[in-house]
Every structure is written in C-alpha cells, then in structure tokens.
Amino acid sequence: MVGLALTGKLIMMIMHKTRSLGPRRNGFLFFGLSTALSITAVPAAWADTAPKTQPAPLAAPVPTTGTAKQIALLVKQLAQAPTPEDAHTLQERLETLRAAHLSPTTQLLVRRAEKDLTSEKPDDAVDDMGDALALQPDQAILWRTRAQMRLVAGNLKGAVSDLGEALMRDAEDAQSWSLLASVEEHLNDGQAALKAWQKATALNPMLDRSHKRSDSLRIKAFGQPT
C-alpha cells in the first residue's frame, strides 16, 4: 500500500500561502488540505471490500458494485453526516476510493511531487504532477492535487484551470470545491468564491457548521448588509 502524508512543513507552506484567509477549523485549511494530499492507492479488490468496515453510525454498508457506485453512496452519506468525526471518516474513505485506480508509476510521480513540495520546490512538484496527468488524465484527483501545488507555486489561474478539469470529471468532490473557493478568494472574486464554497458545503455541511466562512464570503461578494 502506497501513501502520501501531508507533512508539518508542507502544512506551514500552505498556511503561509493562505495566511490572509486566517485559520478556519471547519474550512479548507484544516479539513480539505489535511487529507487532500494523503493519496493512498489500494488494490481494486480492497476497494470492493473496504465499505464493509464502515462504522455503525454511518448507515448501511456500501454495495460492492464498483468504485463509482461506492463513491456515489458515500457522497450521499457525507452530505448527511451527523458529526464532524463521521464526516472526516467518510471523506477519508472517499479519498481512498478516488485514488484506487492510480497506477504504480503514477503513485511514484505523486510521491515525488509531494517530496518536491516539502523541499520548497513547488515548480518541480507541478512538473511531476504534469507527468502523472500525462499517464492518467482521466483521474480527477490528480488534477485537484496539481491545483494544490499550483496554489503553493502562486499560479492561481493555473489552479483554477486544473480544478475545472477535476470538477468536470468529479463534480461531487467537496475538496475540489473547497479548494476552488480559496483560490477564487485569492483572485478577489468574491462571488465565485462564495458559489464554490456553497457547493462544497452542500456536499459536506460539516465544513462550515457555524456558517462563519459562508457569511465572510457573502460579505466579500456583496458587501455589508445595510
């Protein structure tokens, strides 16, 4: 089993890039990025059986009818998750399924990109992800991962473009919408950021239980209410 863990150094780099947004425990910085680069590829056979380990509070087991259907059911469960802990568990399982079809070569390239990023070489990380995408351009999670690396590299327009590709392939990925909201906010497009965040929280309401992030983006989009 091959895994990529987001290191403390990488978290600090991303927080530096997004420092103007402030620390939001229910938002992108603390939830989305803490798992988005933790890409763990597993054999297809494991993916078919993984939902059987689902904790009791998370409703019925996922039928073993293919990765796409498993993802669809977990997406529905995520939208109804009763607690942040349940949402986090579901999000991690969705991440595993979304990365289940990455080839060994692609996994190595993603791991090298993550290493480049922790070594403060974001441009090299973007190049590595470009090589990974050349091998498997159909994998939405790769487009989202390169968008994250482009964000660190300061290429916001490139990040938006990559997220468009990611969402075209997987429109129900809350992490892609959350990342898009942050990138659009950096681009000072308040309305686009709000729309993206609304998409993210519709898929995972636990991202913004207090609605503070939504309220902040609404003010940036439309100004203070009179």
Question: Overview of this structure, please?
Answer:
This protein has 226 residues and is an all-alpha fold. The chain is 65% helix and 0% strand. The protein has helices at 8-17, 28-36, 44-49, 67-79, 84-98, 104-118, 122-135, 140-153, 156-169, 174-186, 190-203, 212-222. Helix 4 (67-79) packs antiparallel against helix 5 (84-98), helix 9 runs antiparallel to helix 10 (174-186) and helix 10 packs antiparallel against helix 11 (190-203). It is globular. Mean pLDDT is 80; it is low at 1-8 and 18-64.
Key words describing this protein structure:
single chain, 226 residues, mainly alpha, 12 helices
Distance between the amino and carboxyl termini: 55 Å
Instruction: Report the helical percentage.
Output: 55-70%
Instruction: Label the structural class.
Output: mainly alpha
The oligomerization state is single chain
Based on DSSP secondary structure assignment, what is the total number of beta strands? 0
What radius of gyration results from the CA coordinates? 17 Å
Q: How would you state the average pLDDT, rounded?
A: 80
Q: How many helical elements? A: 12
Q: Work out the strand percent.
A: under 5%
- SSE string, helix = H, strand = E? HHHHHHHHHHHH
Shape: globular
Largest sheet data: none
Low-confidence stretches: 1-8, 18-64
